Amino acid sequence: MGGCTSKDTTSNDDKKSSNMVDQAVLDKLETGFTKLANSDSKSLLKKYLTKEVFDQLKTKKTSFDSTLLDCIQSGVENLDSGVGIYAPDAEAYTLFADLFDPIIEDYHGGFKKTDKHPPKDFGDVDSLGNLDPANEFIVSTRVRCGRSLEGYPFNPCLTEAQYKEMEEKVSSTLSGLEDELKGTFYPLTGMSKEIQQKLIDDHFLFKEGDRFLQAANACRFWPTGRGIYHNDDKTFLVWCNEEDHLRIISMQMGGDLGQVYRRLVHAVNEIEKRLPFSHNDRLGFLTFCPTNLGTTVRASVHIKLPKLAANRAKLEEIAGKFNLQVRGTRGEHTEAEGGIYDISNKRRLGLTEYQAVKEMHDGIAELIKLEKEL
User: Fold this and answer.
1) What pTM, to 2 d.p., does this model score?
2) CATH at 104
3) Is residue 220 marked as binding?
4) In this structure, are 68 and 178 located in the same domain?
5) EC number(s) of the enzyme (predicted)?
6) Does 250 appear as a known binding residue?
7) Which of 67, 291, 296, 352 is the catalytic position?
């Protein structure tokens, strides 16, 4: 349990200590650091949390009472993490910059602490087309982005009341959407078995967080404040208070990336007119996990490349050249079912929204070309 959850339990006996990290947290930090240091973890957390950085940051606390423990506890508990760090609130990116900055630079391909993320630019939405008009390779296409609501911390620090308040704001905002985006908001609280099953069948329902999110304290007061919105065509979806405050998703069967991207851009612009998003001049749009910062855009396809995939290591190597990430069918930490891979852009920071999607577009086009040549 980290700092930002401890304020519910501490008494006001010692006003002086309110800016200090309490001893129990410090003890957990020391134990955690030793465990990490002695492990053979390959995480970016292990790589960059040197003793020097650790000693410098262990006594710091944000105005939401978050400590270094809130940032690193998931990576300490799950030594098989790839990254191993989360930001409990927007301030953590600045206060714990000595740890976040090198991890961000490493993950986002050389985004240095002196670099600035460019302003939002969705580009010419009509310039992207269908990557697979004959429907030979691409099963489905999806583009999503994450957004945090201004004035609220991230999951680990949210109170139950804040969860409810946010759900109310989000649900009333989404119910105002029209035309292609018009749909229904389903709160997870009190959801009937029928609706639950329907959302599971459509692969829309998100479950309580995995062990990485659990360890980061991102699943408190579950299912309060969580909900799902989708349009009538089932091509537009919003997750409320899953990993991020908002996950905005556009998707459909086949390879028409242009259509999927246009729908997402339209939706984000409509929502932003009504809800202010948390944005930082240097890091772009802020998210709970540093891998999603900047554009927060993840454009992906479910794709069958049987010849290339005969050697997964080779497939990953080729994909890597185009800054693409290969995952199993059901996302991170899963296998490819029936030879179907989930392939997406890896870079989200230091480039525009349009460039991130275009990178995926060009990489997938190239993979399809190579598959055809084999």
Assistant:
1) 0.89
2) 1.10.135.10
3) no
4) no
5) 2.7.3.3
6) no
7) 291
Catalytic residue among 144, 147, 226, 262: 144
Q: Which residues contact 147 (CB under 8 A, 6 or more apart)?
A: 244, 245, 246, 248, 268, 271, 275, 277, 278, 285, 296
* Claim to verify: residue 250 and residue 348 sit in the same structural domain: yes
**Active-site residue among 247, 262, 263, 282?**
247
- CA-to-CA distance for 110 and 92, rounded, in angstroms? 21
How many domains, in total, are found in the chain? 2
- What domain range includes position 58? 23-108
Residues ≥6 apart with Cβ < 8 Å to 8: none
Q: Is residue 239 part of a domain?
A: no
Between CA 165 and CA 162 the distance in angstroms is 5
Does the annotation mark 282 as catalytic? no
Do 100 and 46 have their domain in common? yes
Given the residues 30, 317, 332, 337, select the one marked as catalytic.
Answer: 332
CATH number at residue 260: 3.30.590.10
Residues 30 and 151 in one domain: no
Q: Are residues 279 and 152 in the same domain?
A: yes
In a domain, 361, yes or no: yes
Q: Is 357 annotated as a binding residue?
A: no
**Residue 312 counted as an annotated binding residue:** no
Q: Does the annotation count 220 as an active-site position?
A: no
- Say whether both 30 and 88 belong to one domain: yes
Which H helix or E strand runs over 184?
Answer: strand 183-187
Q: Is 144 annotated as a binding residue?
A: yes
Which 8-state DSSP code applies to residue 144?
E
Per-residue pLDDT of the chain (374 residues; tens, 9 = 90+): 455 654 444 434 443 446 789 999 999 999 999 999 999 999 999 999 999 999 999 999 999 999 999 999 999 999 999 999 999 999 999 999 999 999 999 998 889 999 999 999 999 999 999 999 999 999 999 999 999 999 899 999 999 999 999 999 999 999 999 999 999 999 999 999 999 999 988 889 888 888 999 999 999 999 999 999 999 999 999 999 999 999 999 999 999 999 999 999 999 999 999 999 999 999 999 999 999 999 999 999 999 999 988 888 888 898 999 999 998 866 666 666 678 899 999 889 999 999 999 999 999 999 999 999 98
CA atoms within 13 A on the CB side of 112: 2
With respect to residue 367, please indicate whether it lies within any of the assigned structural domains: yes
3 annotated as belonging to a binding site for a ligand: no
Catalytic, out of 4, 71, 219, 289 = 289
Closest residue by Cα to residue 202 from 164, 220, 224, 229: 229
Examine the residue annotation and report whether 4 is marked as an active-site residue of this protein.
Answer: no
Task: Report yes or no on 192 lying in a domain.
Answer: no
Active site residue 327: yes
Has 312 been annotated as catalytic?
no
Q: Any binding-site annotation on 230?
A: no
